[in-house]
Amino acid sequence: xxxxILYEPGFCQSVVVADPAAPAVGVPVRYGNMTGIAITAIGxxxxxxxxxxxxxxxxxxxxxxTATLGAVAAGxxxxxxxxxxxxDNTTTGCPFGMALEAVTSATHTIKVMHVPYPxxxxxxxxxxxxxxxxxxxxxxxKILAQNVLTAAIADLNVTTGKLAAGVISANAAGRALxxxxxLDATTLLSAVAAGAVVESLVDPISSNHxxxxxxxxxxxxxxxxxxxxxxxxxxxxxLPAKARIVSGECxxxxxxxxxxxxxxxxxxxxxxxxxxDAAVAGVPWSTSDAMVPVxxxxxxxxxxxxxxxxGKPSLVITTHDLTAGNIELYLNYIIxx
Length: 337
Prior knowledge:
Blueprint: E1 12-15, E2 28-31, E3 34-38, E4 52-55, E5 59-66, E6 77-81, E7 86-88, E8 94-99, E9 107-114, H1 172-176, H2 185-191, H3 199-202, E10 214-221, E11 230-233, E12 235-236, E13 243-258, E14 263-267, E15 275-279, E16 290-292, E17 304-305, E18 314-318, E19 322-335
Parallel strand pairs: 5-7
Antiparallel strand pairs: 1-4, 2-3, 3-4, 5-9, 6-7, 6-8, 8-9, 10-12, 10-19, 11-18, 13-16, 13-17, 13-19, 14-15, 14-18
């Protein structure tokens, strides 16, 4: 024997066991990332008070095994689990060995082949990457039954590029992925680039994007916008080219006021096509917090076609400048050929 070899094979060693806290004779134990069987109780067999003699080598033992994640079949790998101070099939502890008999449920004593685990050579983060995995090596069956837990996935590691078409579907299995916040708004937004979701990707209509009813919102406010006699453009959304306005509503947030004889109307392409010209001293302009109708009322005769280039509606002020008021206008439209 070479002078520098102290023990051969050296599988039995006196160590301070990490788990359980006070091992008895014949129980599985963990020491760092290594596992074995205690062949003495703690502090006995010539050990000091904190040490236990452990056999770390290859052997076949008969120990209790718990079927934590479903039944254990002969040949299944087993792990030492600190949570139960014993051996089970959770896959989250330290490798212990192979079951030589089955455990259908609960905990039963079976024959187990212990395989020494080189814990010091555990794979580091990022050691196994895409190039180390054969095509289709990671299958659905390998990630079911909690084999891949959320705690094991680093933030932002699941990106849109890693989700193939159909991975998240509208069926029950797909919807289940959204349970308990696994896929919440924050997670989704972090994985979607700015501007990646556009109208053409979410319109539930045919490829020509016609016939979907949309709503555009516009605002005119005396405190912000022009209010002199003339034609004043609303702020807000922009009507697309070839928009056909079919209905809408106008909210007079604050009543319009002006000197005697002042009138107002709203138009898109022609005079009075949204709200007819009327004196601000009366209906529809004189009452605050009021909803007033518009000309288009879901009929062919009343619908309004926007200009070829689209645009915004205008407030037409006549006779005198306005002196107060606030309007919100909502127009419902479809796009036509």
